[in-house]
Design a protein that fits this description.
mainly alpha; 3 helices
């Protein structure tokens, strides 16, 4: 995947997540602040990830290694 395609993919995923969250914003409790909102964003993303499919163990190990080596988190 080229850098341009990666950029487009990231924008599309982020926009999809943003739209999904904003569509449910009226249902979010009034007392939620940045702590609950950050957790909710993460939970919604995790729920979407479950629908993507499996992450083979060899790819997951390679991915986690790259996160560590390149300090991507």
């Amino acid at each position: 995947m080229t850098k341009k395609h990666k950029k487009e993919f990231i924008k599309a995923v982020c926009n999809q997540l943003k739209d999904q969250l904003l569509d449910k914003l009226d249902d979010v409790p009034e007392n939620w602040d940045g702590i609950e909102l950050r957790r909710w964003i993460g939970d919604v993303y995790e729920d979407n990830w479950k629908n993507v499919g499996s992450f083979e163990s060899y790819r997951k190990r390679a991915y986690e290694n790259e996160l560590l080596i390149k300090n991507l988190l």
